[in-house]
Amino acid sequence: MQEVADPGFLERAWTWVSAFVVLAWKEHTREFLYAIAGSVWAVMRLAGKTVESGHVGVKFSFGRAVRTCEPGFYPLIPVFQVIRIVPSRARTLDLPRQTLATDDGLVFEVDANLVYRVADASKALVEVRDYEAALGQLLSLSVHEVLASRDRSALRVSRELDLALARAMQERVDAWGIAIERAGFTSIRPLQQTTRITQLRSRLRTRARVLDTLVQDELPAGLSLGLIGSPTRMTSRTRSLRAVERRSREAAELRNLTRRLDTWLASKDKTLLSAERGNFLRNAREILLARR
Questions:
Q1: 123 and 149 in one domain?
Q2: What is the pTM of this model?
Q3: How far does the chain reach from its first CA to its final CA, in angstroms?
């Protein structure tokens, strides 16, 4: 026996659904409006993209770059088409401070910066994964390449070095569709040890001239050297060793005194406040230092 469907079932079901929707709309009107507005906004975002002034976009259709988009609104097929946007204005990239060594073993600290502009957005997005990070790495390599082969007399901020750095960078980023507006060094500073080494020759020449002048004035060479003096303090090896031995002996005495104090506290079953113990050890250290 086949059951006969109730002809009024669909009508009653539709009535129940309509009543439920009307009731839900009355109770949650604001939430429904927010949901509808969000859905419309999401569809519009997927269905189109706006490229603002000062930027340029590249339209990708099914994963392939098909065109360059100037500022404006462009309709899209959701999911299958996207537009990636990059700035078209000139931008500045500051290189973190670099430390490099020249061929003659001198060490310098270098600061440099770069002003660039995206000339071909398709190449900038397709040829390299992250052109900003890659520019930072190439700038570091170019700085080392330009300065490492230079003589130390040429390691100073100059237009020649700036032009050499700009040329080196442009050769590397031509394939990425990036134009180098300007590249240059903001500072090139030798380390303290490098400064001492570079000034040593000049100081020796000056002292030699003074010595020649004194000798020409018929002063004995030994007396002339005594008048010039030494740029450093001369210390006897024996005196230096004695000072090291004295400091080691004082440190050993202080450790022994601390150990005896801890042993006495344990044997007498007494406790001192940490401040009192610290004062005691401080006074003992001052007594040892006063023996010098």
A1: yes
A2: 0.56
A3: 120
Q: Structural domain tally of the chain?
A: 3
Sign of CA dihedral 141, 146, 148, 154: negative
What is residue 34's DSSP assignment? H
**Per the domain annotation, does 14 fall within a domain?**
no
Buried b (16+ CB within 10 A) or exposed e, 219-232: eeeeebeeeeeeee
76-117: pLDDT as tens digits: 887 788 899 999 999 999 988 888 877 766 788 889 999 999
For CA atoms 65, 70, 71, 75, the dihedral sign is negative
Q: Which residue has the tokens 């050499």?
A: 164
- Residue 179: both structure tokens together: 């134009």
Q: Per the structure block, which two tokens stand in for 290?
A: 């006063």
Higher per-residue confidence, 115 vs 204: 115
124 and 185 belong to one structural domain: yes
Of 98, 101, 122, nearest to 111 (Cα)?
A: 98
Range of the domain at 66: 19-86
- 114 & 179 share domain: yes
The pLDDT score that the predictor gives to residue 2 is 46
Beta bridge partner(s), residue 85: 57
Same domain? For 163 and 107 the reply is: yes
Is 136 inside any structural domain? yes
Cβ neighbours for 281, distance < 8 A, ≥ 6 positions apart = 254, 257, 258, 261
